[in-house]
Amino acid sequence: MTPLQLFAQQLANGFTIGSIYALIALGYTMVYGVIQLINFAHGEVFMVGAYLALTCVIVLGITLPLVG
């Protein structure tokens, strides 16, 4: 893999992870804007999804299209 390809791949990874963080922050902002209270259960839903994806990859051998 050439340095330019590596840079492009890392740039795409950064945009992907940044987009996920932005969606989580947007969810927190919307919940806080409506009820004026931080709801930490919001993060729990994302962690359940992450563990479910990890289980699919490790135990079942299912690879997600974006994971590679």
How would you describe this structure in keywords?
flat; mainly alpha; 68 residues; 2 helices
Can you walk me through this structure?
- The protein has 68 residues and is mainly α.
- The chain has one domain (3-58).
- It is 75% helix and 0% strand.
- The chain is built from 2 helices and no strands.
- The chain has helices spanning 3-35, 41-58.
- Please summarize the sheet with the most strands: none
Instruction: Give the number of helices.
Output: 2
Please give the radius of gyration in angstroms.
16 Å
DSSP, total strands: 0
Based on CA inertia axes, which overall geometry fits? Answer: flat
Task: Give the CA-CA distance, first to last residue.
Answer: 16 Å
Round the mean pLDDT to the nearest integer and report it: 85
Structural class: mainly alpha
Strand content: under 5%
Helix content: over 70%
Count of the separate structural domains? 1
Uncertain stretches = none
Secondary-structure element series: HH
